[in-house]
Predict the structure.
Amino acid sequence: ETGVTQSPTHLIKTRGQQVTLRCSSQSGHNTVSWYQQALGQGPQFIFQYYREEENGRGNFPPRFSGLQFPNYSSELNVNALELDDSALYLCASSFNGAISETQYFGPGTRLLVL
Amino acid sequence: RKEVEQDPGPFNVPEGATVAFNCTYSNSASQSFFWYRQDCRKEPKLLMSVYSSGNEDGRFTAQLNRASQYISLLIRDSKLSDSATYLCVVNIRGGGNKLTFGTGTQLKVEL
């Protein structure tokens, strides 16, 4: 186990709703990254938080937003849900934001949008 | 063109076989390279980093060719437990610590 936890494990929402996903990083890690993995695809980078500041963002619309707390846990918020948002959402923590640091993934949250 | 390209497979091989996966990346600013393994409905887990000099971890050997922008993974003496999806991953300089994943190559090891 990586020590990275995510909640909830599964979630069903309807189109137009909002959702908040949570991630607790591994002890000693100050960086959290979020990824979206659609069925049959590799994970796609959403954004990264380093010491409570956004440290890079992928090609996702502004309705995907995030937050990192002083204890380095993090939230991913998605507004105005669309059917295509159905995916596995993964968070990964690392010791710092350096390019060489290994990222450790949590078990993910499976989101289904109906 | 995708930033990281892999053959999706599946590769069906008998137990004990040697199997090789290849991956190409398009961004010459790519700086770090990895193979991750992902079991069905689970999170990706780091299998090994890939270095220019090539590196080996037990039955697994990874190679990197920066000139050709090509990464490979060789699995020798395949086990049933090696059945999984293998994700080729690069980290691009200037993008923070953003991992860019291929779509993965599915391996099925059979009796």
Observations:
- The longest strand of chain A covers residues 87-94.
- Chain A has a mean pLDDT of 94.
